[in-house]
Amino acid sequence: MFRGGGVYIGEYNNGKRDGFGVFEWKNGNRFIGKFKNGKEDGYALKFEQSGGVVTGKSRILASKWKDGEWEIVSLEDVG
To answer: 42: which residues sit within 8 A by CB, 6+ positions away?
Structure first.
């Protein structure tokens, strides 16, 4: 478990997230993709919720990351 209640399931290298994995924040947001040296890096999908699962809106971000920062983002509202 990470600070703030996040959970990571995936590959590690030298104790850091490295390779393919899924990170889920306590609020239900989820990142599915590649990590390098503990940071988001490469192509990924990020699912975000606002207002809760039942009443809120959701969106999907198809993105490319480099060193934990977005390089390219495509956003789709789905709810």
So the answer is: 33, 34, 36, 64, 65
Give the CA angle between residues 10, 11, 15 to the nearest 5°. 115
pLDDT per residue as tens digits for the range 9-53: 999 999 999 999 999 998 889 999 999 999 999 999 988 887 655
| Alpha carbon distance 59, 76 (integer Å) | 5
- The structure tokens listed for 11 are 């590959």
Question: Global pTM?
Answer: 0.78
Buried residues in 27-59 as b, exposed as e (16+ CB within 10 A): eebbbebbbbeeebbeebebebbeeeeeeeebe
Read off the amino acid at residue 23: F
